[in-house]
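During the practical work, I selected for study one protein's amino acid sequence and its backbone structure tokens, as given directly below:
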Amino acid sequence: MGNKKEEILPDREFALDLLRSLKIQHSVRRHSEKVADKALDIAKKITKVKVDLNLIEIGALLHDIGRTKTHGFKHALIGSKILRERGFSDKLSKICERHILGGLDKIDAKRFGLPEKDYLPITLEEKIICLADKHMAGTREVTIHERFNRWFQKYGRSKILLKSKRRIEEIQKEIERLM
């Protein structure tokens, strides 16, 4: 019986109501809706394997739930914790935890003051949401190149951003091979 709870996912309306009840900024909620739409667009093009569209939609809607508390890197951990505390699927909390910058490895996580472990997207659903998130600058769709150029201008061409860009490009190629 314990495994059944694992698979229960809220619907879109419930997810959006949760974001509203946690007083998430309107701009973050709109961004999350756009990420969900983009993630579903990507997922629906995948023909070679089965993809959990429901998990993608709800995971994308809730991926930034931690931004109710902070906009820093810790929003991923906080979001994961919020979802776990509310009894949501581990799959949802891992989507939150692993979406920042295309994922962080142990070394980069430590550098940002996060607990020392890998925060890399592993499942196809995690990777699709991560990619969709990088395609959305707020509510505007951008290329991966545009997204990272904006970050390079803002933060410099740091080793971590270059590594992140390579990781996202790899994820994109992996997903394209499944279409």
